[in-house]
Amino acid sequence: MIDTLQEKKLVLLYEKLTRRLFLSLYVIIILKKIQEDSIMEYIEIHFGEDFGRLPRGEKHEHDMFQSINPMFCLTKRLWKPQMDIFETRNQIIIQAEIAGVEKEDISIEVTNKAVKISGNRCRTAPSEPGTYRLAEIQFGGFERILYLPTLIDPERVSAAFSNGFLELTLSKIPLQKPQKIELS
User: Fold this and answer.
1) Is 145 helix (H, G, I), strand (E, B) or coil?
2) Cα distance between residue 73 and residue 96, in whole Å
3) Is 117 helix (H, G, I), strand (E, B) or coil?
4) I need a labelling partner for 10 at 20 to 30 A (CA). Which of 49, 96, 117, 121 fits?
5) Mean pLDDT across the stretch 79-95?
6) Strand 114-121 relative to strand 91-97: parallel, antiparallel, unpaired?
7) Confidence of residue 51 (pLDDT cuts 50, 70, 90)
8) Is the pLDDT of residue 38 over 70?
9) Exposed/middle/buried for 131, CB within 10 Å: 0-12, 13-18, 19+?
10) What is the C-alpha to C-alpha distance for residues 43 and 21, in angstroms, rounded to an integer?
11) Mutual angle of helices 61-68 and 4-37, in 10-degree steps
12) Which sequence spans correspond to the domains of the chain?
């Protein structure tokens, strides 16, 4: 006779296999439709939160397909542009590589401890119908919050955007020299 723990394990295994089978069938149907149309366009597959959580250490279905081909992204994902932080004696300089992002689509927020850079890179449709053979460029929204190594003056910040690079120059707050206090 099967005890309740074994029954629970079998039910969980059945649910997990059912989810994966459903996902596999759905992707096969989409690929078949693409093959019939012979036109490959950007595909977004959205599932609700009904898949539940997988046990720790297991990959999610969208991670498995994302590693095969980034077009099979099952969720809206934020991309992370590459950034550098460079510190001089009086300044902190942040460079962000955000090629393809329009100046109007960039938002910068600064406090004395952190910088938030966010924006959106829009996908441009191919000029002719065709088939993607490689799709690595990420599109959509991005957001980076960078915590600074020292306090800066939010009133003394400059920004420049050129050739796909954003450069922020942040002025450090000068450290106050200790005051000597005489005892009376």
Assistant:
1) strand
2) 24
3) strand
4) 49
5) 94
6) unpaired
7) very low
8) no
9) exposed
10) 20
11) 30
12) 4-68, 83-172
β strands within the chain, DSSP E: 83-87, 91-97, 106-110, 114-121, 140-147, 152-162, 165-172
Structure tokens at 5: 């723990």
Count CA atoms closer than 13 A to 7's CA, side-chain side: 4
pLDDT at 147 over 80: yes
Give the global pTM: 0.56
Q: Is the pLDDT of residue 42 over 70?
A: no
Residue bearing tokens 């910040």: 157
- 122-143 pLDDT, tens per residue? 888 888 888 888 888 888 899 9
For residues 94 and 89, what is the distance between their CA atoms, to the nearest angstrom? Answer: 15
- Asked if 151 and 112 touch (Cβ cutoff 8 Å), the reply is yes
In CATH terms, the fold of domain 83-172 is Immunoglobulin-like (2.60.40)
